[in-house]
Design goal:
single chain; about 160 residues; alpha+beta; Outer Surface Protein A, domain 3; 2 domains; four-stranded antiparallel sheet; ribosomal protein; rRNA binding; RNA-binding
Length: about 160
């Protein structure tokens, strides 16, 4: 496609025929495992075609006082409240842009985009009391009340 090319692994007992601009998948038999492989192949090919035509992207938000992110060379540098900045290497085929408190991960491989976004979020998951951390855009974090707000004192 216009954005690049991807290789999709072939699954057992699924026949692939390409005619013109159409890809047909046929299961060799109707066993449950073959039908599962057929559906998986369909999803993998569909994701590859979508990725090479319009790219996938995931957005993350950084929430917390003094929390920052920046791209330096081939690394994403996160300042997220530790005594040292966290450096994450950016994988081949992934583009990361940072604007204020938003990190956008984009690329043609859906699996790699999701894994990279997950690795970034894993560095500082949002905590339930103040909500500080790295979260997916639009992700709702269930908040908890602190122990002072939850107790009733009687004398």
């Amino acid at each position: 496609g216009p954005k690049g090319s991807l290789l999709v692994p072939k699954m057992d007992k699924v026949e692939i025929t390409i005619s013109g601009n159409q890809i047909n998948l046929q299961p060799a038999d109707l066993l449950q495992q073959t039908r599962m492989n057929w559906g998986t192949m369909w999803s993998l090919i569909n994701n590859a075609l979508e990725g090479v035509t319009k790219e996938f992207s995931k957005s993350l938000e950084i929430e917390g006082i003094g929390f920052k992110a920046a791209v330096e060379g081939k690394d994403l540098v996160l300042k997220i409240g530790f005594s040292h900045p966290v450096r994450l290497p950016i994988p081949e085929g992934i583009k990361i842009t940072v604007e204020k408190n938003e990190i956008v991960v984009s690329g043609i491989d859906r699996k790699l985009v999701g894994q990279t976004a997950s690795d970034i979020r894993k560095q500082k998951k949002p905590e339930p009391y103040l909500g500080k951390g790295i979260r997916y855009k639009g992700e709702v974090i269930r908040r908890k009340t602190g122990k002072k707000a939850g107790t009733v004192t009687t004398k």
